């Protein structure tokens, strides 16, 4: 058996777990581990410029590939800088393993240099965490960490490693466990067959059904099954922000995204439905609006792998705890066997009603007549230039909603955004995480001039590793979503949401970092310049697009109302 | 409604803080908490009393079950059960009061476990409301100090909480 130090065991265990990429930033408490990285070539380390970016890049990698993202940071500020990224992954149930250095065991609790209680600070935002006490435990802890992070409802796991545990002078026998068993952790596998039968009966006798699918379908790799189910039944489908791509957006059965900035037809269909099949969703407040007024006439069928997600905000009539894959497989089988047939006549009438709502064309964009670019048109231009085939990461704000509304995702894992935590600064690091996973793919970050400045230092990382990410900045010279709310709810008092006179020259800025910058200010040049940007396949290109700063995102739910209560424009509401 | 939730927890560093943290993080209420290792040294038993409607209690038990360190859990108040709390109370005991306090302690089946010329220290076990009644009976003005353990409990009959 081989003798390895704690630091070496850690890196070897990552390799044995199948990890290819590690995002990190070195520092005192992690230096033994970094030395172990130097002496091997199996696990590639990507040096970021800020630990927050390491977590977001690992997160983007995880969302695009389905594999866990892995992060290595040092103690103290290294660990605390990673917190925002861990919380982001936690809220969106992203598998991630974060290894943080820690001061020597003997110094813990003494307020030592760069000491922080990482296990304590991260506790509310991790699925689980470990503090390594003995080097011999490292292989088992790594195995458990990956098992917990990737199974059930996925999530981030922290491994805090005191420096003495990784001491290169102390060697131990290394053996990586093949399996792991934990008496206190079991993964719900199949749903309850009786419940699934009940759900199928209700589903088949529905007159105004909606399939409401979310991030769980993407995480559970169940998009194809969902599509099969929807096609077999002929029912309308809506996706949550996290679920975009779970059902192909160009499909006629797709109603678009639902919720706060969802389409008119999706929200109306939800409100007037008689059966809602929620799959891998959590009835988030940005979907339901006022829970008391949510889908008043509907029976709720709710499938989720996390029992705590069921009946948390909206009581389910038929709760089904299980992996979406197994439940959907069983549903498909039961529908094929069932004697009850879909109520074709009612469903046709339901579609007629939906088509009426769709005819409103709530996402129609009217060009300004003075060559000013509407932000929606930028997303449309990106969609055109990339032929709908790009991985699109976004930051948070108006541009995120425009990207969700106007980039029609036809595949899962193509839309990478911070839905739950709403983390500005997420998009760019996530986009280069995606690029590392798929070097030949188009990885574009749709962002705003506010968000991009929260992780802009990563331009250097992209130069170092030659990552040709495309950054499309919807520059409205203000924090657009904040400004929109200030317009709508605060009498247009723009409290600290504008900074036009102090914005950097982004083209010069990216050039200083060794990349290409393109500025677009006129609608008439938008498509052509966008094409040019994407034609530069091997370069990072920053496209700074001046857009109409007065534009709002619509539809927008009216606070305190039901799902049918929406503003449709600045002057129109339902 | 008041619920008593008992759980078996991995006897690991930080495990207790995960349970307590969950309650504060999700705005749940802890009325009392007791914890000690069990006969199996790898496990601790923890008993929490909390207050909430059925929906809230369901969420609490689901989230507790999700904690990796929680091995098993039971809501004792769902069935018939025994609950006990131990209280040590120090009371002023002078003059005629001494006999009166002794009598009250006997009625509540408590024991006087320490005596000085002016003070009795009394030990009392029972359900929480019994301890409350005792304090009422003694009267606020006599009570100098109260130390209560919080509720622990066990279900009646054959049902057991074990692995």
Structural description of this entry:
The complex is a heterodimer of chains A (574) and B (163). Chain A is α/β, with parallel strands linked by helices and 574 residues long. Chain A has 20 helices and 22 strands. In chain A, the strands form five sheets. Chain A has a six-stranded parallel β-sheet with strand order 3-2-4-5-7-6, with helices on both faces. The longest helix of chain A is centred in the N-terminal third of the chain and has 15 residues, at 51-65. Chain B has 163 residues and is an alpha+beta fold. Chain B has helices at 15-25, 54-66, 96-107, 128-138; strands at residues 2-10, 32-37, 43-51, 70-75, 81-92, 111-115, 119-126, 143-148, 152-155. In chain B, strands 5, 6, 7, 8 and 9 form a five-stranded antiparallel β-sheet that branches. A four-stranded antiparallel β-sheet of chain B has the order 2-3-1-4, with helices on one face. Classes of the chains: A alpha/beta (574), B alpha+beta (163). Chain A binds chain B through residues 119-120, 123-124, 127-129, 131, 148, 182-185, 306-308, 311-312, 315, and chain B through 10, 13-14, 17-18, 21, 25, 55, 58-59, 62-63, 65-66, 68-71, 163.
Write the layout of secondary structure elements.
The complex is a heterodimer of chains A (574) and B (163).
Chain A: E1 2-5, H1 6-16, E2 21-24, H2 31-38, E3 44-47, H3 51-65, E4 69-73, H4 77-91, E5 96-102, H5 118-122, E6 128-131, H6 138-150, E7 156-162, E8 171-174, H7 193-204, E9 209-213, H8 215-219, H9 223-233, E10 237-239, E11 254-257, H10 264-271, E12 275-279, H11 285-288, E13 299-304, E14 318-321, H12 324-337, H13 344-358, H14 375-385, E15 391-394, H15 398-406, E16 415-416, H16 427-437, E17 443-448, H17 459-464, E18 470-475, H18 480-489, H19 506-512, E19 516-520, H20 523-535, E20 541-546, E21 556-557, E22 566-567
Parallel strand pairs in A: 2-3, 2-4, 4-5, 5-7, 6-7, 9-10, 9-12, 10-11, 12-13, 13-14, 15-16, 15-17, 17-18, 18-20, 19-20
Antiparallel strand pairs in A: 1-8, 21-22
Chain B: E1 2-10, H1 15-25, E2 32-37, E3 43-51, H2 54-66, E4 70-75, E5 81-92, H3 96-107, E6 111-115, E7 119-126, H4 128-138, E8 143-148, E9 152-155
Antiparallel strand pairs in B: 1-3, 1-4, 2-3, 5-7, 5-8, 5-9, 6-7
């Amino acid at each position: 058996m081989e003798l390895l130090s704690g630091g070496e065991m850690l890196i070897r265990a990552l390799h044995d777990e199948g990890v290819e990429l590690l995002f990190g930033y070195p520092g005192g408490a992690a230096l033994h581990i970094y030395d172990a990285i130097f002496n091997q070539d199996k696990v590639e380390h990507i040096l970021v410029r800020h630990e927050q970016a390491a977590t977001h890049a690992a997160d983007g990698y995880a969302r695009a590939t389905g594999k866990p993202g892995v992060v290595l940071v040092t103690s103290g500020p290294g660990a605390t800088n990673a917190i925002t990224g861990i919380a982001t992954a936690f809220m969106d149930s992203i598998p991630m393993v974060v290894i943080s250095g820690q001061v020597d065991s003997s110094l813990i609790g003494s307020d030592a240099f760069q000491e922080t209680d990482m296990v304590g600070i991260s506790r509310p935002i991790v699925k689980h965490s470990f503090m390594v006490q003995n080097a011999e435990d490292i292989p088992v802890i790594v195995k458990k960490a990956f098992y917990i992070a990737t199974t059930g409802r996925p999530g981030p796991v922290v491994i805090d490693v005191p420096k003495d545990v990784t001491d290169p002078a102390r060697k131990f026998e290394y053996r990586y466990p093949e399996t792991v068993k934990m008496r206190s952790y079991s993964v719900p596998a199949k749903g309850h067959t009786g419940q699934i039968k009940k759900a199928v009966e209700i589903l088949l006798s529905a007159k105004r059904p909606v399939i409401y699918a979310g991030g769980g379908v993407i995480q559970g790799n169940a998009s194809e099954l969902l599509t099969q189910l929807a096609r077999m039944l002929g029912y309308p489908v809506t996706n949550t922000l996290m679920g975009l791509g779970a059902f192909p957006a160009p499909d006629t059965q797709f109603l678009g995204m639902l919720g706060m900035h969802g389409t008119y037809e999706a929200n109306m269909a939800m409100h007037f439905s008689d059966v809602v099949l929620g799959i891998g969703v959590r009835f988030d407040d940005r979907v339901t609006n006022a829970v008391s007024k949510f889908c008043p006439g509907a029976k709720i069928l709710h499938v989720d792998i996390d029992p705590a997600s069921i009946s948390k905000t909206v009581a389910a009539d038929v709760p089904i705890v299980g992996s979406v894959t197994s439940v959907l497989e069983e549903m498909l089988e039961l529908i094929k066997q069932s004697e009850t047939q879909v109520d074709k006549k009612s469903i046709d009438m339901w579609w007629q009603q939906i088509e009426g709502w769709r005819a409103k064309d709530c996402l129609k964009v009217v060009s300004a007549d003075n060559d000013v670019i509407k932000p929606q048109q930028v997303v449309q231009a990106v969609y055109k230039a990339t032929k709908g085939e790009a991985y699109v990461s976004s930051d948070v704000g108006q541009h995120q909603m425009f990207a969700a509304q106007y980039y029609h995702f036809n595949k899962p894992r193509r839309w990478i955004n911070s839905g739950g935590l709403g983390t500005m600064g997420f998009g760019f690091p996530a986009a280069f995480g995606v690029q590392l996973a798929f070097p030949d793919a188009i990885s574009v970050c749709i962002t705003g001039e506010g968000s991009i400045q929260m992780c802009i230092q990563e331009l250097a990382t992209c130069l170092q590793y030659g990552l040709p990410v495309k950054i499309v900045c919807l520059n409205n010279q203000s924090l657009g979503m904040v400004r929109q709310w200030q317009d709508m709810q605060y009498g247009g008092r723009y409290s600290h949401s504008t900074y036009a006179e102090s914005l950097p020259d982004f083209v010069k800025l990216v050039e200083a970092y060794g990349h290409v910058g393109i500025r677009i200010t006129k609608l008439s040049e938008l498509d052509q310049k966008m094409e040019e940007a994407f034609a530069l396949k091997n370069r990072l290109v920053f496209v700074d697009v001046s857009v109409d700063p007065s534009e709002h995102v619509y539809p927008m739910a009216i606070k305190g109302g039901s799902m049918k209560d929406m503003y449709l424009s600045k002057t129109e509401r339902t | 409604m008041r619920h008593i939730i008992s759980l078996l927890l991995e006897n690991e560093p930080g495990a207790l803080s995960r349970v307590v943290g969950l309650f504060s993080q999700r705005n749940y209420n802890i009325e009392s908490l007791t914890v000690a290792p069990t006969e199996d040294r790898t496990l601790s038993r923890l008993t929490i009393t909390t207050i909430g409607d059925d929906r809230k209690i369901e969420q609490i038990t689901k989230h507790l079950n999700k904690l990796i360190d929680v091995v098993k859990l039971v809501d004792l108040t769902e069935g018939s059960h025994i609950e006990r709390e131990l209280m040590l109370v120090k009371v002023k005991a002078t003059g005629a009061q001494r006999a009166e306090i002794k009598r009250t302690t006997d009625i509540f089946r408590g024991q006087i476990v320490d005596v000085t010329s002016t003070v009795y220290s009394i030990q009392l076990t029972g359900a929480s409301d019994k301890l409350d009644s005792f304090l009422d009976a003694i009267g606020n003005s006599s009570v100098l100090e109260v130390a209560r353990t919080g509720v622990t409990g066990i279900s009646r009959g054959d049902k057991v909480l074990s692995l």
